[in-house]
Amino acid sequence: MGAVARCLSQRIRLGTLHAPATNRTPRTTSSQFRGVASASVAHPFQGVQTFSALPASPASPAPSPAVDEPLSQPPSPHRLLPPSPADRGGSRVIRPTPPPSSSSRKDRIREARPFSDFLTDNFDRQHDYLRISVTERCNLRCLYCMPEEGVPLSPQRELLTTPEIVVLSSLFVAQGVTKIRLTGGEPTVRRDIVPLMQQIGALRAHGLRELCLTTNGLSLHRKLDSMVEAGLTGVNLSLDTLDQWQYQLMTRRAGFSAVQKTIDRIFELNRAGAGIKFKINCVVMRGVNDREILPFVEMTREKDVEVRFIEYMPFDGNKWSKGKMFSYQEMLDLIRSRYPDLQREAGHKNDTSKTFQVPGFVGKLGFVTSMTHNFCGTCNRLRITSDGNLKVCLFGNAEVSVRDILRKVNGGEPIDEAAFELLRQAAVDGMNQPSSPTDPSPLLAPNSEELLNVIGMAVKRKKEKHAGLGELEHMKNRPMILIDPPATIQRHRSRWHHHIGVAPSTSLVNKGPAPLSGFLVPGSGNISALQQLRLFTSTSRHLRQDGKDDSTKGPKLTHVTSSGAAHMVSISDKTPTKRVATAKCTVYFSDPAVLRLIKENQMKKGDVLGVARIAGIMAAKRTPDLIPLCHPVALTHAEVELAPVEANIEDGTDGKNKGGAIEIAATVACDGKTGVEMEALTAASAAALTVYDMCKAVDKAMVIEGLRVVLKDGGKSGRWEMP
To answer: Annotated catalytic, 693?
Structure first.
């Protein structure tokens, strides 16, 4: 640690550390700890092009920096030879770092180029922040993010390769992007995530200021040092609870101790001067983890971290409901009940969160209010999905494939390391030829102008703001883990067959371009991947055990013989399928104080919602012991959700909801020969009875109503949902 501090202080004296004007300590990387300047690692595109080779932007000049804002180092006029694949894969080749520019601050301001018109929309929003999803995979199954069984993954061929991500990153940085964030899925599960960050980090010599990561932190502690060395400047860690058992319920996986190791390592590196901007993202869901808000606030008392509370947002497959959304104002009121002197902090115009701080606390609080107070007017973000689609809005469902356009230079095939090396060499060879006004210097990719034109069209189509709260929940969008509409998969699959058999080496010679894809609009007639994967019929015909059609006769009770005796139905001849059922009911209170006590966790018997949830899950597993004619089945999933509902006598319940209510939904699944409707009903019933038992001392006039099955899927009868 002493050597680290000496190396850090030496670099500060030499003036080689450059950081934006913030209250944080100057930042250094692990490579600088070892005395190696990361800027001296040659980037694959150094020597291939200069920024001036890209199309000039006709946009109006960007505003001049504030007087006290430090300017980043201008790109070096020296061109360094690109490293070979062996250099990138093996020992690092250290190149001399060019001396800093001697031009004055006024000269640099005067010579500053206007911001790219390609990245400026029709509302004058300049998009200098790029988020890149580097994988669809994740090692958790968070409740608000994806179904427990996961999501259909794209074939590897459909995903962006490392060279393609680097090419796109270089293109955007050349146009003015100063911040790149790598996301997923979970980015740390990508095998080459560190080499990828090393190549993107080298873009700091060309204007990139921040390289950040959004992660669940499960395996980050094993890679963090290498990432800091590669140029990592910020970490957003997704963590929704500080309780290890609640963590396992919310993520459906164990691993809280591993996340704690990551948090401890970040603080340790920051104490050594790494200057990692550390934020914890907490998605708040009513009745699930809203009681965690105050413990997270207390965490900022002595820790230099910004905890950001995020309003629960709707994405495909995350079972969003308005009743589960805990609003920004509710969070603020809850925090001020404990910390009344909470103060609002001044923020940057492009901040996604509203920043607060408790006086005397080291850390800060943030609120991401996408649902109740959007920040669309200052949005500066663009997203590239792992399958290469550009999204200009997180909640938008129109996308354009930049991957397909980029691969046109390789005959539609993925650009792997071999193809990339040929392209790079061709570009270097082209620079040895005399340039002319009609033959500009090579760009990052031979068709960069086409890429920029398509990107510019997409940015210009960006709306002034996304849909409102009442519309978002009904819009089709990617699951959060993918940010990807399944309808695109079949379209892409036809494109793979079109290019089968074309080797990357020959594709560079054969210039047959892949079809140029336009904007992807849901509902265009493409076959959904989820529809292709569906194995269940939707027929309503019934067959007798002897195989004859019984659809013309009236309904029969299957558990009663012809003589009227009860018996257990034989399922020996049935085919095992995946079966799912959801049951719901509601507990109505007569006294509004009950709901308040539940929310504040002040009931004498303890955590009502937590205990009821566990009771429901346990009851589902014991259903055959309670219901005599139920078959024992091996459940693969059992989930009970309890959502508090505020009192409202005009909500369509005929005045029942005069004191508030708890809505209960139980979902049970199995891979078996019989359905799980009874298990779902038992789970919902037990959860409701537990709520009654724990609250009856305060409210003896509670009413449990509406127990019913609302969804059943699987088996010969297929899918059924209550209208």
So the answer is: yes
